[in-house]
Amino acid sequence: MHKNEFIKQVAKETALSRREVSQVLQCSIDLIAQSLHNGDKVVLTGFGTFEVRTRRERRGVNPRTKEHIIILPTRTPGFTASTGLKLAVLGKLEQEKVGSDQAENETLPLKSARRGRKTKTQITK
Description:
Number of strands: 7
Order of helices and strands: HHEEEEEHHEE
Number of helices: 4
Radius of gyration: 20 Å
Strand order of the largest sheet: 1-2-5
Shape: elongated
Number of domains: 3
Strand content: 25-35%
Structural class: alpha+beta
Helix content: 25-40%
């Protein structure tokens, strides 16, 4: 779903015009970007957390010259999805609301702190 489709759908499900939804969405994006620029973390409960992550200095290779180079540390935006969002993507959110204990034994791929590799972790309540 692209931004325009998203705006159209939100306008359809609310009593707001496309223009109003577009302004709210753009303001939200700008506010998140400004907060990240200032070094703040943005937590949207039930959705996820936006934060600035720092990539460490690392060695690389120039593909043209095959020369070894040092890639300087850099800051980059990151997003961590909430458990509720992960369950919604898997279609298990309704089960969780009803009180089903099946989700306790399921595993979700979660982002590891080490170079973005995925690991499987148990969901706990």
